[in-house]
Each structure stands twice: as structure tokens, then as C-alpha cells.
Predict the structure.
Amino acid sequence: MGATLGRYQLERELGSGGMATVYRARDRELRREVALKVLFPHLSKRPEVVARFLREARAAAALDHANIVRVYDTGGGAGSADDDDALSDPPYLVMELVEGRSLDGALREHGPFLGEIVAAIGMLLCDALAEAHRAGIVHRDVKPANVMVTRRGRVALTDFGVARLDDDDSAILTRTGMLLGTPAFMSPEQALGDPLDARSDIYSLGATLYQLATGKMPYSGSTQRILTAIIEHKTVPPLQRNPAMGGELAGIIEHMMAAAPADRYQNADEASDALLDVVMAGGIAPGPDAVAEQLARFFAAPADYTEAMVPKLVAISLERARAAAAENALPQAMAFADRALALDDDCDEAVALVERLGTHHERRVRNSLLVAAALVAVIIASATDFTLWPRDSDDAANSDDSSTWVGGGVLIPDASPQPGARGRDDGARSIGDGDQRAALTAPATTATATPDPGAAPPASPGTAAATADTDTERDSRKPRTRATTAGASARPRAQRPAVEPAAEATIDAGAPERAVVAIDAATAVVVAPAPATVTVDIKQWCDLSIDGSDYGRAQRTRAIELPAGRHRFVCSQGPGRSAWRQTVTLRPGERRQLSGSVLAPVSVRVEVSGGDAVRIDGTRHDNGARLQLDPGRYRIAVLSRDQERSYDYVSIPAVASCTVRDRPTLDCYR
């Protein structure tokens, strides 16, 4: 280029953002390559913007960390007065030249990263943020575009241009009413304009990891829609968008992105420790050098690295699933098995394990619901003094048992206090004690009593035995009590007649012991496992089938109820044509959104002449960017300095590659 700024010789433009252009330059005095960030000329006339710009220098220059881009010097405008030409130059920052590319560019080119790679990047960025936070600096604009990665695997956080320092003039920028930061990665408190602390950066880093792991931003659309969604915390859980990322990483990201700051990790070190566990569980050795080596290998050849790592990660996930199942930790076992299947849906061992664990999990859920139903029935009957076995007044006066028999199967003790009643250990027991506990744990037994041949026949359900004695009739409406008459002799407990159960619930906890609880039809509560609800969002038209059954044309607004368990989804445009396939395991009551494309993604390049970038369905892409898009229809806007100049709805064809141009008309040209 030949132009100079101070002692720096500009060589070529590296890129531009919302307020500055970055050049590769050479320091003529120190004879080294640097990066020069030069403020746009029209912004140089605004004192508040210049102040904001120079704040980056003060913020970053105070930091010395391997994962933060170093700032060497400032110049131009009000930045320096070392020479007479400084005042005529626009303000600029002199920074370390990082030979590499942004995470944003790598993501557009290669799509979502492996979960372990995402965790490794996140761990290093947490360490960088922890250093900044200890210095009293909140970055406020953490996003993939502000993270550089080198060929050697070094990850470096840059662009502290909107950082907040703990000094007196730190509020100057917000007083102007400017929205600082990138909306899609803002924390709720930042979107609301509330005071920020380190936990806001943790949220933004979580949103960054969300995009790296899923290939999608957590929020998209117009700025107003994004801000509303952030404030209302409306985003798709990351695991739904990419089950292959793993439940542990998804949980960490959701924790980082909690709506309330108090619900997030309280500092970057905590988040770093959690991410380190994911890295180590994936077989990557801890330590900056080992992590950098893995990142270097990944970014050198992402597809080859992923292909080599997937079998290892599947084996690790299956091993962890079996270990969790052995400890009876079924949810964890299911999560590990689900990830193995998401990584390799053709892995027979993963399929078998998911099916086995799914069956066991459903059985446990079903049994828990049936036990709950039995207890509800017992409580209802007890509350209404529901007695199915009649007793005469003499038996009522002398019996040592104040229990009520319900449905011929469940013994309910009278809970009302009794004058002179014996202690719990001597009298009736609650369900789960004594005889009842034995009945509920005995193999293949039914909790019914042996009928007494001499006992009176059972009364009709819901009625009490009546006598001609008025006092007895009146007393029958009182709570039954044990005999308290002095000298009353105790009688052996009478055997109640068995009542034929109307419904029978089998309790099977997966152990060798089983129990059957009989519940009367009048009080039985039938609780079936809640179905799962699935929506399927496919970019193109296709006919959907689930487990071989035809569900017609796929519609993203259609909610499909399915029983919990494993299901195979296929969406095709016809025999012999490409199809989208996915196998998922659904849990009772779960709501899941599935998305994809029946066609291979298209390699898209951006080359517009009427602007410096485009926005495709809410995501900005600079001129020269390469990205992967599914064939389909997109809203594409041409931007000039972040201002929308024109837009149109463009169909990305089902081809290997195309280029977005705005001449002669906005389209993707082959």
C-alpha cells in the first residue's frame, strides 16, 4: 500500500469492523510485523468514540496473558504527540500480529466443532477472561469474531474496544446512549443496560461456545428481536441442536448462559475447571501445550481430525455409559449412550445400549408412577374414611387394629390421635413398615389378606355396617378407636376377607424382587407415562416417516406426540433421492426439536460490490467469507458499515458451491 502512520508502514488490509480497519504493517524502528487498527475517519471527529477506541489500548496494554492479543502502542489523533504528524493521523492502535484466523471464519468454513475442541477453546478463553477480570476489566464483546486462532493452536482474545475499566470515566460511553457489544452474544443485563460485572463476560463466552458447538447463534433475527429473546431467555437448548456435543458440555454452556447472574458460574476460573473436566474426559491431556497441540491438529485439517477422533469418543462414551449403568445412574448412562449414538448412528453397540437403557428407564418411570398412583389411592381412601370391611360394634370395641382396609389390598392405619392408644411399635403400622414393607418387597406377592371363614361378608364399597342400636350408629360415624375400657381384653386380629381387585399394578424396579399392589377400581389412579413431543424442521420439502410409519409432508409447526423410547426419523423427497435421517431417544414428557436438510450443504462465498458485508438470516458475513449453507431460501441483506443498503430473499440452489453477488441482482451465482 505504501502509506504510513507514524513509524508504521502499511502493507495490506486484513479486515474491518464496525468502527475501524485493521492493517498488516511494519514497525520501521523495531523492524517487526504488527497489526494496526485504524479508526474510521468520520468517527475520528467524535470525541466520545475516540475515547472509547483508546480505552482498548489502556485495557489490553495492562494485560499480559498468552491468550490475549498484546497491545504495544497508540498513535494519531489524541493518542500520541510524539511527532508533529500525529495530530493529522486518525487514532490507531498498534497490536501484536496474530498469524491465523478468527473462530468466526473457521466456523463458517467447517461448521460445528467437536465438543472436546469447543471445551478446550472455552477453557483457554476462561483463563484469559480471568486475567482481565482480576485487573478489573470486563470485555463486554466476547464473540467468535473477536477470537483468533493460530496455526500452532494458540487461541487469543482481542478487541477490548468496548471494555469497561473500574475508573471514573468508565461510564462515558453508556451515557451517550450507544448500544455497546454484539446483540446476539449479550447477557440479559447488558441488553437491559444494567451495570455489568465479570459474569456478563461468562454469559457471552457461553453464547460463543454455543455457536461453536451447534453452528448456530443462540439468538437470531433483527436487533430488537434478539434483545427481546435474550431478555426473555428464549433459546433452543444446545443439546437439541447438536446431540453429538455431549450432555456435559451442553450443561456447562447452559450454566454459563443462565438468565440471572447469580445462577451462572461466579467467576471464569469456575467455568474453566468445568470445561477442563470435559477436555480430560475426551482423552486430551491437560496443560496449555497439550491443548494447543490438539487445537493445531484440528484447525490444520478439521475433517480428518474429526474422523480420527469420533471412534475414540464413541468408545469413551460407551465405557462411561456402562459404568454409570452399573451404578444405577440411568440418566447419566442414557446421556453418554445418546452421545455415542449421535456421533455414530451406525454403531451397533451404541444402538443396543441405548435400547436397553431406554427400556430400563421407561420401566423405572412407569413403576414410579404406578407406586405414586397406589399411594394417591391410599391417601384418598384414608381421607374419606373409606371402609370396605364391616365390623360389628363389639369387634370395633375390642379390636387392637384401627386400620382401614381399602380395595382388599392396602392397609391404611387410622392416623387420628387416640386416648390411651399404644405406641406405634405396638399397634397398626403405616404402609412401608412391618408387614406392609415385607409385602412390598417380597418376590411375586400380592398385598391381600387371607379371608377368615368366620368373618362377616364385606359391605358395599363406601358404606359402613349399620346396627339397630342408635348409639352404635352414632358411634359408627366417629373415627374408629382402640378399646379404652378398663380391663378390656385384647382379641386376636381378625382376618379380613380378600376383595377381588379391580386393577393390579406391578412394581418392577429392575431388581429380582417384585411386588404387586392391588387397587380398588373406585380409588385407582391410572397414570401412563407422558408422551414426548417432537417438531421436525427441514429446510426443503420432504415426506416424513417415523419408525416406518408415514407422517406426510414435514411441517415445522406440527407437533408430533410419540411414546418415550428410541425412534428413527427419515425425511425423503422420493425413492432413490437423498434423505435426512436421525435416530433419537425420547424421554417421557420431553419436548424436542429436530432440524436438518435432505440435501448436502452448499459452499457459499460472499462477493458484493455495493457493500462490505452481508447479513444472511440475521448472521453477518464479511466480503470474501466462505460458509456452508443448506439449500433453501434465505433473507440476504447487503451491508455497508453495518447499515443495511438492500435485501432480497435468495434461494441457495442444491449445488456444490455458489457465490453471493449483488450484481446484476442479489443472488447466489454458480
About this structure: Residues 572 and 579 are 4 Å apart (CA to CA).
